[in-house]
Amino acid sequence: MSRHPPAALLPSSAALRAGRRRAWVLPLLALALGAAFALALAVGSVTVSAAELWRIATGDDAGTAGAIVTSLRLPRALAAAACGGLLALAGALMQVLLRNPLADPYVLGISGGAAVGALLAMLAGVAGLLLEVSAFAGALAAMALVFGLSHGQGSRTPTRLLLTGVIVSAGCGAAVSFILAVASEQSLRGMLFWLMGDASTASRPGVAVGALVAGLVACAPLARDLNLLARGDGTAQTLGVPVVRLRLMVYLLASALTAIAVTTVGSVGFVGLVVPHLIRLAFGNDQRLLLPASALAGATLLLLADTAARTVIAPAQLPVGVLTALLGVPVFLFLLNRHR
Amino acid sequence: MSAAACPPLLSARSLDVSVAGRALCTGLDLDVRPGELLAIVGRNGIGKSTLLGTLAGLRTPAAGTLTLEGRALADWPARELAKRRALLAQSHEDHFASTVLDTVLVGRHPHIGRWSDESDADVDIALAALAAVALRGFELREVRTLSGGERQRVAIAALLAQQAPVCLLDEPVTHLDLDYQIETLELFARLARDEGRAVVAVLHDLNQVLRFADRALLLTGGGQWVCGPVDEVLQAEVLSRAFCHPLKELRDDGRRYFVPA
């Protein structure tokens, strides 16, 4: 018996080359994001028709509907989409950094730090910009803590980084519980909404949108290096990737993106975990495609979830994090079982 | 065989390699020239892999100098170094799903510019590498569904796709069936002989060393080493001491073989 397959059955080099190109994925995901955006602008207490949306988009005055769309729905939709993209991108980066497909942007304690910062600000009766600054400072503090503690004698190995992050998260969780226990009844509801993730107070989407664009641009030249990093430090180093520098860059980038997302919409869960995971299952683990595709899909998912959050029990609103978790848990369990 | 006339590709001078204060190799002088296959032999844990990693430039030696094509290893830009020396690791981690073809294409990384993608030529090089390890037809298989031996051959294909003049191989034939062991070693012997590559391989089977290697570096512990032509280094007495087990030399058809006594 021959050990080699007959030549006629071999896939041709041209077919294999064509199979590796997936140029249609990004335009398709961009189209989905566009559709989600139109939906987010159209639905709500006042339904805006497609024709009206077009008039508003082209600059014609559209009265009350125009005011609702441009001053209320648009900033919120931009914030939700940008943060969904940020969280999915940060999650994809963390999964490479920790070389673990089950890592998420919060695994290194960044959301915990942000939560402590935000809740402390609420406890002090602060709102608006100062609250966001406090949350961001908390995220940076957690980041610095994990970074400092994980640098032992050797380098920052994935395991050491992960364990340090888990412990810092646990510490932040205890601090959050403490603040909730001593907080007044009136501030409790706001705190809980913040903890679950809520886009209703997001009024300044510019920072998140800018961070997402900057993050994607920063990742573009690193994507092939990241492919190698995902295969192991040794492999990457042998093939000419500056591993120590790259790991540091990815850590700082993913942390910064997460901190901005959490500051804007709170700790929205599961987007950063499930989206990169789904994209990887569907289109493979090439970071050149995975990173932008995750960002687009994450943006679409959080935008749709936020649209649902403000419409399903209108006029009351749900925290969007509840919806992403309700969606994320079954999807995630399904994925886990499929992998068994 | 005019290997001795060529300038060495890889050179070590007074090289000290140590791990946590334990000397693995002291004062090593070594030249690896194009066209030759050098085998590194020694007991488990004696430092073969660590030495190989040091020769690859992944570890800083405790003392001494290492040069590749006459230039200090540390002075090579990482990507340029990766075009010139390849390392086959002893174990292969697969954290994420990946096809065989994508795994082999990883070897092309140093040859592709930061702003470019794999070209058609790169895919063809990867396919030729797969053909060399008899894995054509496996291109779209997921690497994690392969057997240990098949996975090892994928790693060898990735190393071939890197097209480096210096190949450092850490136990290249582990997990392989007997026929693939011989084919793999014949392949690297051929690459050395026909393409003038320099091959350094950690090998366990002394009879394979006798058959395929030109020279051998025997690590004997405590930083001691012996290096020279295979027939000089591989002698029953010194090997028996190095491996802590008496070895007996047999001869058949003009060839020497070692068997445990």
Automatic annotation (TrEMBL), chain A:
GO cellular component: plasma membrane
Subcellular localization(s) per the UniProt record: Cell membrane
Pfam family, one: FecCD
Entry GO MF terms: transmembrane transporter activity
Membrane topology according to the record: Multi-pass membrane protein
Primary location recorded for the protein, binned into one broad class: membrane
Keywords: Cell membrane, Membrane, Transmembrane, Transmembrane helix, Transport
TM regions (residue ranges): 74-94, 106-127, 133-149, 161-183, 248-275, 317-336
Family per similarity comment: Belongs to the binding-protein-dependent transport system permease family. FecCD subfamily.
Designated name of the protein: Vitamin B12 import system permease protein BtuC-like protein
Biological classification of the source: Bacteria, Pseudomonadati, Pseudomonadota, Betaproteobacteria, Nitrosomonadales
UniProtKB/TrEMBL annotation, chain B:
Keywords carried by this UniProt record: ATP-binding, Cell membrane, Membrane, Nucleotide-binding, Translocase, Transport
Pfam families per record: ABC_tran (PF00005)
Transmembrane segments: none
GO molecular function, one term: ATP binding
Source species, domain of life: Bacteria
Sequence ranges assigned to domain ABC transporter in this UniProt record: 10-246
PANTHER family membership: HEMIN IMPORT ATP-BINDING PROTEIN HMUV (PTHR42794)
Function: Part of the ABC transporter complex HmuTUV involved in hemin import. Responsible for energy coupling to the transport system.
Protein's name according to its UniProt entry: Hemin import ATP-binding protein hmuV
